[in-house]
Amino acid sequence: MNILYILLFPEEVQEKLNELRKSIHKQIPDLEEYIGYQMPAFKYKNKPLIYFAGYKKHIGFYPGAEAIRNFEKQFKELNYKFSKGAVQFPIHKKLPLDLIINIVKFRKLEIEQKKS
């Protein structure tokens, strides 16, 4: 499903979206892919984990408000634009894959703790 979404973009954006998707899958293989809010997304234990989207100049990454608050310092240090529930990774910069994986792991733990 997410592949069809990715194919809608210019090659440069496709490369970033594929890199993001594959990196998340490689590090955390037990996630389910789907489309939510017209964006590629991952579920964990049938709960929305993160969303991501392609744009002309950036990749939008939507982990939710708590994750944004938790990683706000890193976003500021790396000079990324962010809002209450999203962060923008510029197309012309290398994706911060370690940071992205840490955010996904944070969200996974958040879901696990809510189930307890």
TrEMBL record:
Gene3D superfamilies: 3.90.1150.200. This is DUF1801 domain-containing protein. It comes from Chryseobacterium flavum. Pfam families: DUF1801. InterPro entries: YdhG-like. Residues 14-106 form the YdhG-like domain.
